[in-house]
Amino acid sequence: MNQIFDINRTMLFAKLKFSQNRKMLLIGLAGYFGLIFIITFFMAYGLNGNYAYVMNTFHTVAMGLLVGLGGIWVAGRSYQDMNSPEKSMAQIMVPASTFEKYIVPLIFSTVLWVFAITAIYQLYAFMLNGMWSGLFGKEFGFFNIFDLVHNPELFDSVKGYLLVHSIFFLGGIAFKRYPIAKTVLSMFVINICFTVIALVTMLILFGGFIEMGNMNNLVIENRLDQILNKDTIASMKLISELVFTIVIPIILYIAAFFKLKEREV
Amino acid sequence: MLTIQNLTFGYNGTGKLFSDLSLNLEKGNIYGLLGRNGAGKTTLLKVASGLLYAHKGHVSFKGLDVSMRQPKFLADVYIIPEEFQLPDFRAMEYVSMFSPFYPKFDKKRMNELLLEMEVDKSKKLNSLSYGQKKKFIIAFAVATNCSLVVMDEPTNGLDIPSKSKFRRIIASSIDENRSYLISTHQVRDLESLIDPVVMIENGNIIFNERMDTIASRLSFVNTTKDDVPEGKAFHKEPIFGGEYMVTENNSGIESPVDFELLFNAVLSNQNEIVEHLKA
Question: By residue range, what is the domain housing residue B221?
Fold first, then answer.
């Protein structure tokens, strides 16, 4: 039997992990769906005019929040069953490889979560729209998730989701207690640091913050205005996009694996 | 089976707990690990199970590096910590979830053990009392048929009948392919069970002897009841009306080993006792 990855062992571990977190997951989902039920009821009752558009826009936002924020919540809580020495011991000693213990929550909070929740929400929205149509005699139409698939911004949303997911996934492993709150706090601190660095850089390049948008005001006489031509700026934009949407998530996912591997009790 | 070579380990900020510690555990034994509070018994069990990483040295189990935490190793070693948490499962749900990870798991034996230990199978495990939880996890550990079962203070929380059942279960489950490593302060609970005895002090193994060697080379004497044998006394403890003594056993008759007395004797006169046993 392969000591790094075995599909049967991975499925067993996934089943175990799901069973251990089932209650929290179901409570969270039930709460959210309950809230959607109440909101859509009042919307359906009070809406006038373009019912279908408003209702289905609401569904798009509600589903986006559930997939995005819910996924981040699940990612941040991926290793909450290791948040005390006793629980940690139990998890480490489960006869599965570190890779399997890493890949199961990763796949669950990315691919599985997105697809399963999208499918569930699609059905739920279908049921709600039908129910409110029947109850209030208004036509709410059909909320179709596949309309969003053709949205050109979807790919950017996926990249953004993976960046934020990778941050919270790492936070979920790195912080034993309150991983989501601590990850948000860490992001805040890191953002402040980046802002300070950016401000200092601007100060050096532009000599102040008032005219910093104007390239002609560069105070450094090293022909930066020529270096930073249109093409260079476009390349820098592309590079920074690649760094933030591909390089950083990959680094964070790898860091998460090693953080899990080095976990002790 | 389990080999610890030149282990160095310490927690952050507290200095070295183990320095160059070596220990070898063979198959077919019930090792009793004794030591004072803070001597590092629990830490040693954790390092041996791969729950903590050695700073220096090497820990291996059947040739596998325990720090790699490979499934093959994890499926053949079971640890029962002193403090543990069980999930929100009923007994048989727990068994169905965890037993597939252990290829040698014996479900029939598990049911027998739960019956013998009188564990309530209908309740959620996390709602059981500490003693019930402990009995459940001991039953599970035995049923896994792992080659090495590590237990930290297993009799803590067990009632008196359960302690004797525990001794019976462990004694009946030992065979030439499996070993137990039991750390305990409750030596009287395990007196008839453990063999060999391993003692840890100041980050090192100071004593590692088989019971037959101890019983044949040392005498445990209560001067109020027994005749004082000829030969050197290694350790004495005053008791009402006399003394408890550990002496050389020159009679050739094995004497029952008093673990508490042995432990105190080794702590007070380690070198002479070890030299005498090795001689």
Answer: 211-278
